[in-house]
Amino acid sequence: xxxxxxxxxxxxxxxxxxxxxxxxxxxxxxxxxxxxxxxxxxxxxxxxxxxxxxxxxxxxxxxxxxxxxxxxxxxxxxxxxxxxxxxxxxxxxxxxxxxxxxxxxxxxxxxxxxxxxxxxxxxxxxxxxxxxxxxxxxxxxxxxxxxxxxxxxxxxxxxxxxxxxxxxxxxxxxxxxxxxxxxxxxxxxxxxxxxxxxxxxxxxxxxxxxxxxxxxxxxxxxxxxxxxxxxxxxxxxxxxxxxxxxxxxxxxxxxxxxxxxxxxxxxxxxxxxxxxxxxxxxxxxxxxxxxxxxxxxxxxxxxxxxxxxxxxxxxxxxxxxxxxxxxxxxxxxxxxxxxxxxxxxxxxxxxxxxxxxxxxxxxxxxxxxxxxxxxxxxxxxxxxxxxxxxxxxxxxxxxxxxxxxxxxxxxxxxxxxxxxxxxxxxxxxxxx
Length: 432
Fold this sequence. Notes:
Distance between the termini: 81 Å
CATH architecture of the largest domain: 3-Layer(aba) Sandwich
Oligomer: single chain
Strand order of the largest sheet: 2-1-5-6-7-8
Number of helices: 18
């Protein structure tokens, strides 16, 4: 039987009061009556909380701090404190057009090493857990839930047909990282706005919409530069819109994301159209508590259906809110979070990795290093080829003459003169 969990130490690369830290650790811990000791603020590391805590949680890409991560891992191991790596995104496969792709790719091997070395891993979704299992078989799922202390259920607004006097608002909330996702449904949104004219408009909160939407007279955008997650929750609940959208491109990274937008939209009593992708297909039943769409035509048809049927909007909104209340409030599930981490305190718990698993990981690492070396060698060879081509070009007499003429041109041929035009033609001929 596991011991009672009372205290954890948290090391995170995110701000202490960010949405990620609150949703994944501080909110559940508060609801479960577990104290959270902050082990770092940005890159200022404090090892003392490890001694006082029962479990050490490393969140997201904290291993990018390198030596400080190693110090935390060594201290926890020396004190016999289990280390659990908490992850809410598939940072091992960030899309190339993600605005932070470089930052995560630069520290990919740091993250891989930390996941392998951890006593366990906590993932936000079953899809993410399966993606991480080859690195560490001790993976548990803790889904994102709606924090009762921050989110209240708002009854759906009385639905009515849209008009120019009372336009219907299609709303989207998301950061700049989701701009490629929104771009995929932009044609559908533009068609909907064109069909309904001033009776329908779109509102974006957070990251800016793609240029084609941002320039549209029926589209508005408001950034959400708020100091913490509690402030965001309060500000977003003050917004009013009639239909919500949650697009996601079909990528492994997006398949591992959570259904948090469904929970937040539904709490506001707003019906939504959601990507027909794993984050939503496990919770949204098409036509019952939301609509699902994949191709642009499906998005357009779903939006038209909601715009033109007030009864459908109200029915889906009430069913979605019931889904949240029936199983996705943090107060009802905080005990699961506590039990998940308390399990690491079980005496005699077997290590996360056995010999066969470590051998398999070593083979994966060897292949990754070979591929990395091949890419590096190819890039270095390309740079050497370019340098050689440039050196050969600079060795040509014509190049040297062209450079000399360029330096003297200002003196011999003032700008705008006939002599300047003649010398310019001569330089172009010699430089061929």
